[in-house]
Design goal:
Elements: H1 2-7, E1 13-16, E2 32-35, H2 41-51, E3 55-58, H3 65-70, H4 72-91, E4 98-102, H5 127-146, E5 150-155, E6 157-159, H6 169-179, E7 184-185, E8 192-197, H7 198-214, E9 222-225, E10 229-232, H8 233-243, E11 251-252, H9 268-273, H10 282-295
Parallel strand pairs: 1-2, 3-4, 4-5, 5-9, 6-8, 7-11
Antiparallel strand pairs: 8-10
Helix pairs in contact: 2-4, 4-5, 6-8, 6-10
The chain binds nicotinamide-adenine-dinucleotide.
């Protein structure tokens, strides 16, 4: 996201609670890294006013399902309080023209494998999923009650270089191969997800930001973004092992609980209204992702 914005000539401030260390690897030159907590509303207000930022992409969140199950309150604090803090700060900032809040396909909950469409009710029940559904509804509230120019993205499973969340299946599998260990699958391997390369997601979110700044009727609107590459966890692990020419066999723990079984995301609305479509084929995206970790061995711990 930062790279795309800088390439487009924007001045970019990247606010994160955890800057430094490996988090800074691969961060593009020119990004102003701001070490802060989005829940600190006074700080967010101050930085919006000092920078005169006109575009806010709210991505900060506790994004992992396992830690969310272990400590729901902390996840709710980061994801729900963090979102109301950003929205409230945006409401009072004169320069703000467009805001996107990252929700998730997980906000829909279990639809029994039916494709998620934006008009479907959000029926999330597990902690991470519910935190994203709550953030999503808060964004709708600020749009409908306060006319804040905010739209909502609901992406499928993202993958791409720079992801340091090793409990996620794509970076976790690549890391295992690079350190010579069997990749671990915490579920039984059958969970189906819709994978989307981070560059495609970025392009979709930026088109959405641009559109909500231009069109009043998109305030509070949600857009699904998906790559259309639906694979089970076991299938994606095998794809990565093949691409890395690894003879390792995955270890299936079957310990994951509170996960949606099958996710299918329709991005028809984004295709129609944002003229967006995913450009990165899964095999190309995975190759590129593997290369990223190969050229950044310092992040592999
Ligand atoms: N990765 C996916 O598959 C996926 C899919 C759909 C939606 N999303 C959403 O997209 C957004 C970005 O996801 P990601 O995969 O880049 O996650 P990530 O975990 O890589 O990045 C999230 C960042 O937020 C920061 N953060 C957490 N709490 C914070 C706080 N209180 N203040 C400031 N920074 C804080 C973390 O330090 C981290 O760097 C999230 O909102 C996530 O819920 C992700």
């Amino acid at each position: 996201m930062s790279r795309a914005l800088l390439t487009a000539g924007a001045s970019v401030h990247g606010l994160d609670i955890d800057w430094g260390g490996s988090r800074s690897v691969g961060v593009p030159d020119g990004l102003a890294a701001v070490h802060a907590d989005v829940r600190d509303m006074a700080f967010v207000r101050r930085i919006l006013n000092e920078t005169g930022a006109d575009t806010i992409i709210h991505l900060a969140a506790q994004t992992l399902v396992g830690p969310a199950v272990a400590d729901p309150v902390e996840t709710f604090r980061h994801n729900i309080e963090g979102t109301w803090s950003v929205l409230e700060a945006c409401r009072g900032a004169a320069a703000v023209r467009r805001v996107v809040v990252a929700s998730s396909d997980k906000a829909y909950g279990d639809a029994g494998g039916r494709p998620y469409r934006e008009e479907m009710a959000l029926r999330a029940v597990h902690p991470y999923d519910a935190s994203k559904a709550a953030a999503d509804i808060l964004a709708q509230t600020y749009a409908h009650t306060y006319r804040l120019p905010v739209a909502i993205s609901r992406c499928g499973n993202l993958y791409g270089g720079g992801d340091l969340n090793w409990s996620r299946i794509v970076p976790g599998t690549i890391r295992s191969v690079l350190v010579g260990q069997r990749p671990v699958i915490r579920s039984d391997g059958s969970l189906v997800r819709d994978y989307l390369h981070v560059r495609d997601a970025t392009e979709g979110v930026l088109r959405l930001a641009e559109a909500v700044g231009r069109r009043d009727d998109l305030r509070g609107a949600a857009f699904n973004l998906s790559g259309g590459s639906r694979l089970s966890v076991l299938q994606i692990v095998r794809r990565i092992l093949d691409l890395m020419r690894s003879p390792l066999e995955p270890e299936i723990l079957d310990t994951a609980r509170f996960e949606i079984v099958e996710q299918r995301v329709s991005s028809a609305r984004a295709r129609r209204e944002l003229s967006w479509r995913p450009e990165v084929r899964l095999s190309d995206g995975l190759e590129e992702t593997i290369d990223w970790y190969r050229i950044h061995p310092e992040v592999i711990r």
